[in-house]
């Protein structure tokens, strides 16, 4: 009995000790609920709320690879030096780009607060040799990093780095790669703009701009404003289901000249869309038929030759994946540009575009007048036309 009592007592003691230790055990805290990214569909697809804020963010961009071929020094081709005799040979033009874009949006008591940025990283083979026509066969935007857009907009007021409203408000030209064979205005500029949208199809813009570039030959811009007086652009637009009518007028404060463009867009049906742009600009103070920078220039807005120019073209969609795009442009200087391509969406987000471009240059064919169109890079003096082509692969996201 004594042994039995001893065993029962020992078991009771062990249970008591175990219970005491269990009471003293560390309690593991409950995990905090995870804060998942929330979708923000107020501003369109792809936006999400930045955690802990009321700001919606979208991140996107594209990766692009261009392969070009064409006449010596043409807009689509390149030249290289022969390693044996030093001569000039035609060769491929290759260009790769990564563009990173961001959008933000947030509602405030003063209206929607938005931002947009786009940064481009470029790599290019930069083929160029002594056989080319010097600065007329530039390295382009080869191995560069550029901030192409960086603006803030509150309500209708926008400030920052943008492209000129002379182009953005009226719309760029056709859906072709080389849409500036006859140029329709310069692009990069700092802006102070105000946009008005009546909500019934009528909209307007007023833009104070500064231009870009230093006015040298290599940098074909005509420089920024030369005093405190800005360039001024104004525009109005009427948009309906059938298309749109848009007009813009620009005052170039450097040369005290005026340029204007009027555009008509027509949606013929679900497959066919057409456009035509007419441009006219004064040139009494534009003393540059031959690129005499910085004393003369094309002006920041009237980049075409002569007073008037016209651009027209359209898009035909064969199906959801394939479209045909074409553009024809011509100016008073008898400069003709033709571009046409087939764009095919291999899978959503990946597009392959095959394009052929042709230029018949008016004044640029004169050896004594190397021309006023900076886009015709390297049409040799004495030539009057060039043909080239490009194959573009682009993954957009």
UniProtKB/TrEMBL annotation:
Entry GO terms, CC: cell outer membrane; pore complex
Signal peptide annotation: 1-22
Pfam families, per database record: Porin_2 (PF02530)
InterPro entries named in the record: Porin_alphabac
Membrane topology type: Multi-pass membrane protein
UniProt cross-references to SUPFAM superfamilies, sorted A to Z: Porins (SSF56935)
Keywords, comma-separated and alphabetical: Cell outer membrane, Ion transport, Membrane, Porin, Signal, Transmembrane, Transmembrane beta strand, Transport
Highest taxon in the source lineage: Bacteria
Record keyword Membrane present: yes
Biological function: Forms passive diffusion pores that allow small molecular weight hydrophilic materials across the outer membrane.
Family per similarity comment: Belongs to the alphaproteobacteria porin family.
The protein's name: Porin
Source species: Mesorhizobium tamadayense
Lineage of source species: Bacteria, Pseudomonadati, Pseudomonadota, Alphaproteobacteria, Hyphomicrobiales
């Amino acid at each position: 009995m004594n042994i039995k009592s001893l065993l029962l007592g020992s078991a009771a003691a062990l249970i008591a000790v175990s219970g005491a230790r269990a009471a003293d055990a560390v309690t593991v805290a409950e995990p905090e609920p995870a804060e998942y990214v929330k979708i923000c569909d107020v501003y369109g697809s792809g936006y999400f709320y930045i955690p802990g804020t009321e700001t919606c963010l979208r991140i996107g961009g594209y990766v692009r690879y261009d392969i070009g071929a064409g006449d010596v020094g043409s807009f689509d081709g390149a030249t290289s030096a022969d390693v044996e005799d030093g001569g000039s040979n035609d060769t491929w033009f290759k260009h790769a780009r990564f563009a990173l874009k961001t959008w933000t949006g947030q509602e405030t008591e003063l209206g929607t607060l938005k931002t947009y940025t786009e940064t481009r990283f470029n790599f290019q083979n930069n083929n160029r040799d002594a056989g080319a026509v010097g600065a007329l066969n530039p390295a382009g935007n080869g191995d560069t990093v550029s901030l192409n857009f960086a603006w803030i907009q509150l309500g209708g007021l926008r400030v920052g780095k943008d492209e000129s409203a002379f182009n953005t408000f009226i719309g760029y030209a056709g859906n072709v790669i080389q849409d500036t064979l006859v140029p329709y205005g310069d692009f990069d500029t700092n802006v102070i703009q105000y946009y008005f949208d009546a909500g019934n199809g009528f909209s307007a813009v007023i833009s104070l701009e500064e231009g870009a570039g230093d006015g040298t030959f290599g940098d074909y811009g005509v420089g920024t404003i030369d005093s405190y007086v800005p360039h001024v652009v104004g525009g109005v637009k009427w948009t309906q289901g059938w298309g749109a009518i848009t007009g813009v007028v620009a005052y170039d404060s450097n040369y005290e000249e005026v340029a204007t463009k009027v555009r008509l867009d027509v949606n013929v049906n679900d497959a066919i869309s057409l456009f035509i742009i007419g441009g006219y600009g004064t040139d009494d103070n534009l003393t540059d038929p031959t690129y005499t920078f910085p004393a003369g220039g094309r002006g920041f807005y009237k980049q075409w030759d002569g007073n008037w120019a016209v651009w027209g073209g359209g898009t035909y969609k064969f199906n959801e994946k394939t479209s045909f795009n074409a553009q024809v442009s011509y100016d008073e200087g008898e400069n003709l540009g033709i571009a046409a391509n087939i764009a095919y969406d291999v899978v959503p987000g990946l597009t392959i575009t095959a394009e052929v471009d042709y230029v018949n240059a008016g004044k640029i064919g004169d050896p004594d007048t190397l021309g006023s169109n900076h886009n015709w890079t390297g049409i040799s003096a004495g030539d009057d036309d060039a043909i080239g082509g490009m194959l573009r692969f682009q993954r957009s996201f």
